[in-house]
């Protein structure tokens, strides 16, 4: 079984917090991880995927929680949202840490009634599809090295995986087990249908649910691009208000996420629009109907999918390594652009440019150099990730780094 790098973070949270919510998309391994944690003596496990358990929990949430004793794991908590106030009452009576481990396939932080009921009592830990490091049996140290100045000591992993194959496969546990493209495609089709037909319907009444699959395909085609709501609204044939609502729902069920623009006062006019990314490149490639060969031949598409992949890998690493560090993108009106910018609470910044090629020139460092020169001491490092295999310094605080260093220890 693949060991999840977030596991230690979950155990630490359960050591000092009454309620811990393991939150993430369907089929990312939440149940497997929760069941493993539930093997501790005295811990009871319930899943609301079980119809009888769900009926009891939804019919009498206060009674259901009141009759539980000792640490308890409740899987798929979003199916019975009325449990949250009952859990709040139980926690207020007994604030021992680790009493409740919950898992959910909908982002409670976007559902105010749920998140507010456990404010100050619950820690939310995200669980994403497998990271590249997890699939290689490693706990990645890329972000730490990026900020502590030890990037040159990283030992990139040699791999036989073709980059396009890695992107098309994605990171969902079920998908990576299917080497046959058709069978993996069948899984993705079923996965999308389940989420759109069941999870979204459970979250909100959606008129014209048939428009969501087409919208998701349009968003996949725009993955790693600036989110222009007017363009998407026109192409999808949806009113702006409806599109905004649908996007919020797709984010709530962890199919897409936005990468906000970074906007400090640099004395220049900046582009403020967020970038949009799908949560998994395998899912995006399926929606676009592309296989590894087409991805290899279409360099533009390969570049967009690689950027989405890197952003996803950094989000995964931050979830266990440095959750207070925030991801952004940076772009000026003049066209200078840094694909990913990482900012720590103290204001220190690192920039990452992503190139789907094995040859990089001076021009590829121009935006990072501009950012470095304007930020001064706050700028810690700027790197260009590329598909070559040499790690090379490129001036003060600038590095050319192989993509495989992203999942090195």
Short recap of the structure:
The chain has two domains: 7-126, P-loop containing nucleotide triphosphate hydrolases (Rossmann fold); 132-407, no CATH class. Helix content is 42%, strand content 16%.
Can you walk me through this structure?
This protein has 409 residues and is an alpha/beta fold. The protein has two domains: 7-126, Rossmann fold (3-Layer(aba) Sandwich); 132-407, no CATH class. 42% of the residues lie in helices and 16% in strands. The protein is built from 18 helices and 14 strands. It has helices at 7-14, 30-37, 51-59, 61-66, 83-93, 112-117, 132-135, 142-148, 163-169, 173-176, 181-203, 211-221, 229-236, 240-252, 281-288, 292-297, 299-321, 366-375; strands at residues 19-23, 44-47, 72-75, 100-104, 122-126, 225-226, 256-259, 275-278, 326-331, 337-343, 349-354, 379-386, 392-393, 398-402. The protein has a six-stranded mixed β-sheet, with helices on both faces. Strands 2-3-4-1-5 form a five-stranded parallel β-sheet, covered by helices on one side. The longest helix has 23 residues, at 181-203. The model has no long low-confidence stretch (mean pLDDT 89).
